[in-house]
């Protein structure tokens, strides 16, 4: 009877170990799925912004465009849109705001405007105060994109003046280098200066 009891205990232990291993495997798999989902959620949309439940947004280096869906037939007089240097509040009168928070980066309020498109979308244009910077989100606390995955429209570089174009190309180069774990233009310049310095010292 003792032998049978010991055998049963051994069987139960083995069974528990199998269950524990399976549970651990499921946890690892779930963690992988969550990581993959998070990565997918951080990927910018085609306009280098993000599509959210209540609104979507796109951007280029100078401006950000926000689209807020509203009931069909909405008129301008029903809309409340307050754009400040560091704050955005958008919604319909008499209802809780759809967007209300501190902007990710500052804007130029005098160069921002909004209008109703097709009587079903509030379209907001925000002019960035610090241009040549990519935004991660519209208001702080909202989901963010991975700005390393932003893809600038190279075709539009030709529209920029030479000085701005040079800055953008440098920024794009540095972004590409960082994503590959390679030295940026600043790192390369430092390396060249060090080489020059060492060659002068040794000569």
From TrEMBL:
Spans traversing the lipid bilayer: none
Q: Which UniProt keyword terms apply here?
A: Cytoplasm
SUPFAM superfamilies named in the record: HSP20-like chaperones
- Cite the record's Basic and acidic residues compositional bias ranges: 26-40
**Which GO annotations describe the biological process of this protein?**
protein folding; response to stress
What domain of life does the UniProt record list for this protein's source? Eukaryota
**CS domain: which residues?**
50-139
Question: Record's InterPro entries?
Answer: CS_dom (IPR007052), HSP20-like_chaperone (IPR008978), NudC_fam (IPR037898)
Disordered: region residues:
1-50
Q: Name one GO cellular component term.
A: cytoplasm
Primary localization class, coarse: cytoplasm
An MF annotation (GO) of this entry: unfolded protein binding
The record's subcellular location field reads: Cytoplasmic granule
Function according to Swiss-Prot or TrEMBL: Small heat shock protein required for the establishment of auxin gradients and for patterning of the apical domain of the embryo. Involved in the specification of the cotyledon primordia. Also required for normal inflorescence and floral meristem function, normal developmental patterning and thermotolerance. Acts as a molecular chaperone.
Can you name this protein?
CS domain-containing protein
* Biological classification of the source: Eukaryota, Viridiplantae, Streptophyta, Embryophyta, Tracheophyta
